[in-house]
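Hello again,

I reread your note about wanting to compare the complex against the isolated chains. To keep things tidy I'm splitting this into two emails, and this first one only covers the full assembly. Below are the input lines as submitted, including protein chains and any nucleic acid or small-molecule components. They are followed by the predicted structure of everything together. The single-chain runs will come separately.
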Amino acid sequence: MKINVMSVMVDDQAKALRFYTDVLGFVKKNEIPLGEHAWLTVVSPEEPDGTELSLEPDQHPAARPFKQALVEDGIPFTSFAVDDVAAEYERLIGRGVQFTQPPTDMGPVTTAVFDDTCGNLIQIAALDKSA
Amino acid sequence: MGDVWKALADPTRRTILDELTERDGQTLFELCARLATKHGIGSTRQAISQHVDVLEAAGLVQTQREGRYKFHRLDTAPLRQIADRWAIMDSEENR
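Full-complex prediction:
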């Protein structure tokens, strides 16, 4: 068994695709129309055959209250690995991304948290090289 | 206003104030992460939230809603009543 895909629940697939590709820099891997929505995934250009991220419509009535409650408390839905959190923070700030937590030393990791504009907070994290 | 003395009596609550001194305006998530990773305080998010509520009732923390996020800010004004009650004296060597 392998983990080949994970999901974030987004309020708008087209908007999510723009943010996750144009702003974050991921690339589209699959777009399979399924009626009103699509099976839509992106991957990291650093790992084109790596784990796919599915941009999943948050259409279930329970999804939005769940997402809102997480966002209110600043809780990221998931976490992506970066080499340098501070550099990534500067790059994304330059692209207008809003952070709820700037780069912060959290023991063995440095983390930051930003808003994906689709109803989620996302953490970026780097393990300390010396750890 | 709640009891400042009681609010300060708990080490976890004092650590929350320490972390807000280091960076003001944190989400509950950031506070919990700092407590867990920097101080080994592995309390549940709910327990930390209750500590924040006590600090808020004492006026030491203010919760501000900005858009869809909730940030916690330090307010040291209630500490004035301690110095008002027992004035801070200079010791001999400091004169």
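For quick reference: The domain at 5-127 of chain A is CATH 3.10.180.10 (2,3-Dihydroxybiphenyl 1,2-Dioxygenase; domain 1).

B.
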